[in-house]
Fold this protein.
Amino acid sequence: MQYDPVKRSLGNVFNKTPLLRKVFYKLLDILLLRAWYIKREIKKIYSKNRKAETNVLDAGSGFGQYSFFVSSYLRKAQVLGVDVKEEQIEDCNQFFAKINRADRVKFQYADLTKFTDPDKYDLVLSVDVMEHILEDELVFKNLCDSMKQGGVLLISTPSDQGGSDVHDEDDHSFIDEHVRDGYNIDDIEQKLLRAGFSKVEKRYSYGTPGSIAWRLSMKWPIMMLNFSKLMFIVLIPYYIVTFPWAFVLDWIDTITDHKTGTGLIVKATK
């Protein structure tokens, strides 16, 4: 299943004006359950210190969705977004210049297997990135080295309990770009500890409610768009019917402790 072409097509549609770009971010925040979890964790960390001068690394910044949120929520944050896709870097730099945040939010090319910026960052985000990188332990070490003592790394990634929609050894990832189908919850903790982190907190996300919502709001629409771009027309009535159900299921997922789930939310402290 080709996920990136669909993302690029949606990005092109919503990139006509800064207002449409902000609408696109808001839609992603609502539709992507991982965004619910990551934003909640950031709010927990900085709820009493939103005016802190914070250095943030968005490691695998993509469309810049999380850089936008962080720079909105933490008004004195300096954010660096890094990615290997140069067209997205240029696009994000142009957008943040248009909304007058270029002094606080910048984007540049970086290969995370080679990127280090010693003892600089208070917060590092890695949202649906590590499943794309084979040399994960090297990246974890580079990120740890780039963080200040006491800094926090937030990770969202598929688990090995059906992540990437893989449920047995004969299945293949729903997203072709993944190099691994998901992490074992204890294995990722050990990798982070070996990389130099002193404390790791982890939990399952995308339990039964979230997994159902993901199929309703993401998997099936993407399958339709891969079949034909004309399916854009169908998506409007489709979401009118399915979105309220997906929204409630996502909310239930975030307030539930899951014994298992297809996603992981990991907080590692240096």
